[in-house]
Amino acid sequence: MINKNITHMNDNKDDLLASAWNDKLTEDYVEQWGELLLHKKIPEFCNLLPSEIVLDIGCGSGAAVRAIASRLSTGHVTGIDPTAKMLEIASKLTVKDSHYQRVTFLLAGAEKIPFESESCDLVLAVNTLHHWVNVNDGLNEVLRILKPSGRFVSVDDLWQESIEYGQEQADDNEKFSCKHELKTRNGIVKLLNKNGFTDISNSEHREPDATASIITGYKA
Ligand SMILES: C[S@@+](CC[C@H](N)C(=O)[O-])C[C@H]1O[C@@H](n2cnc3c(N)ncnc32)[C@H](O)[C@@H]1O
What we know:
By secondary structure, this protein is of the alpha/beta class.
């Protein structure tokens, strides 16, 4: 059951695009990929400040949200996800965490974010951009809710080298409704450019068990 102290359901369910993630896919995903060393590195990847207001879009079971919360003093972190089962797992795991007072979860997708304009310092997307139903709408929402000079950070697997892009991957893309072109660093950089982000940086983090592409773009 969802913990009502930290999870709030979106009042307007019509705003929510259908999630491609059923309960079985969700549970299998969380068991295998839900809590990685990578998630612990996220505050460092984002140059997080302890006072920042942070939104994690497509937060899944909340590992990045918990890593961020553990570094906040006066700030707050909200995780949104359109998959109710993800939030159920996220809230169960987070309520055991000593930093949970700095955390909120909301049932919502990237395409309609229940936040006021110019309210966030940092918006984060970890392994999720290629799942969004409408990526351009989602990024417009990111720009709307970021404060001037706020930043968007996309953290993703290094797909090109970690996997053979063969039939198995194509099947996976189909199963999870993934956008193939957003599984490359260049694809993400192009997308941020096209959507009006500035000062885009593109780097890789390499460590055993934690390799990632980190792409940051700013609101002008
Ligand atoms: C691969 S999982 C990553 C979860 C989490 N960020 C992590 O690192 O473990 C992708 C997530 O994107 C979410 N998602 C799917 N469609 C979305 C959308 N339109 N907007 C935001 N998130 C979405 C899924 O529900 C799922 O939790």
